[in-house]
Amino acid sequence: MSNNILLSVKGLEIEIRTNKGSVFPVRDLSLSIKKGESVCLVGESGCGKSVTALSLPGLLPSPPFNIRRGEIVFEGTDLMDLTLGQLCNIRGKEMAMIFQEPMTALNPVFTIGDQISEAITTHVKLPKKQVRERIIELLNQVGMPVPEERITTYPHQLSGGLRQRAMIAMSLACQPKLLVADEPTTALDVTIQAQILELLNRLREQHNLSLLLITHNLGVVAQIAHRVLIMYAGKIVEEALVHDLFDNPLHPYTQGLLDSVPYGIPADAKRLTSIPGNVPALDSIPSGCAFQDRCPKAMDICRKIEPEDLRLENNRRVSCHLFR
Ligand code: SF4
To answer: Could you give the angle at which helices 190-207 and 160-171 cross, rounded to 10 degrees?
Structure first.
């Protein structure tokens, strides 16, 4: 494994046990993230993106979730081999998460300062004065106005954008190496979205942070990603550097996603199309290619045999029978 790889996931399969049998929101998923790299995991709701994100720091509740097989290697250590105590030492310190809605992720009865303080002192013992200084420094880093005053505010006293900044400050408290951000801008309006993305990009550059950003928004991808992973029905169906993906999408699902978002100035804009149908329910994923019922290029073989990953030049991969 290259020394530059921070996180490597191989053959991950996650099961949910129900009283009608098992379903699989993540199926044979492999991905890697380099140090200082920004990777976007993209797909519609229900594709398994958030389950994948929560599995990395071991945050999936068991039951009902069960990691059936695979490995999650972070800095050379397979996290599946660790005890809960060892995992807790990595969470927040080496690998931190930012959630979609800070109002539900932050505790409403503690001040912003108290919550960031807890994130610091859980992992590092520091005198109170230094903790306060570190909180102010973190709030400054994320562009929180008047941090000396905000430290005593409660989440409900802040706007959505400031709450998200407070949560980012909390996630940076122990200078993690990997930040997993699950739809961090979805609940924000577009101007605040742009500010938060710019902030994440700046922090990544300043701290050589690796970023795994979960999103369904291709505009976000264009602004922040080095590399993109397209996920459908629990699998990565295409992987490419961001320019290659936008210039020449290979998988029919990626093409459908790109055709359904507006580009350019209105005079140049083409008619938008949508992908017919919906992501299959977990208990109705068809055998063969999971995208077959929505794919305009489906062939007989697609209904019989599940396509395998095909590795291409320039770190690309695609999983589709069209490329056999
Ligand atoms: Fe479409 Fe077949 Fe490719 Fe699946 S394998 S995306 S059904 S062409």
So the answer is: 20
C-beta atoms surrounding 253 within 10 Å: 27
Residue 266 makes CB contacts below 8 A (sequence gap 6+) with: none
What is the CB-side half-sphere exposure of residue 93 using CA atoms within 13 A?
Answer: 12
Own/partner contacts of 156-159, CB < 8 Å, gap of 24 or more, are 156/103, 156/108, 158/112
Mean residue pLDDT of the chain comes to 89
C-beta of 318 in contact with ligand 1 (< 6 A): no
Ligand 1: distance of its center to the CA of 206 in Å? 41
Who's near 291: CB < 8 A, 6+ residues apart? 232, 233, 237, 252, 253, 298
- Asked whether 321 lines ligand 1 (CB < 6 A), one says yes
User: For position 20, what pLDDT does the model report?
Assistant: 85
Probe residue for ligand 1, chosen from 230, 291, 323 as the CB with the greatest number of ligand atoms within 8 Å: 291
Counting atoms of ligand 1 from 1, which one is nearest the CA of 237?
Answer: 6
Residue nearest to atom 5 of ligand 1 (CA): 320
Ligand 1: centre distance to CA 103 (Å): 40
Buried b (16+ CB within 10 A) or exposed e, 188-199: beeebbebbbeb
- Does residue 3 carry a pLDDT above 70? no
Atom of ligand 1 nearest to the CA of 321: 5
Residues 6 or more apart whose Cβ sits within 8 Å of residue 59: 91, 97
Q: Is the pLDDT at 175 greater than 90, yes or no?
A: no
Neighbouring C-beta atoms of residue 295, cutoff 10 Å: 22
Q: Report residue 253 as tokens.
A: 């699902």
Confidence (pTM): 0.89
**Which ligand 1 atom sits closest to the C-alpha of 296?**
1
Distance (Å, rounded) from C-alpha 64 to C-alpha 113? 34
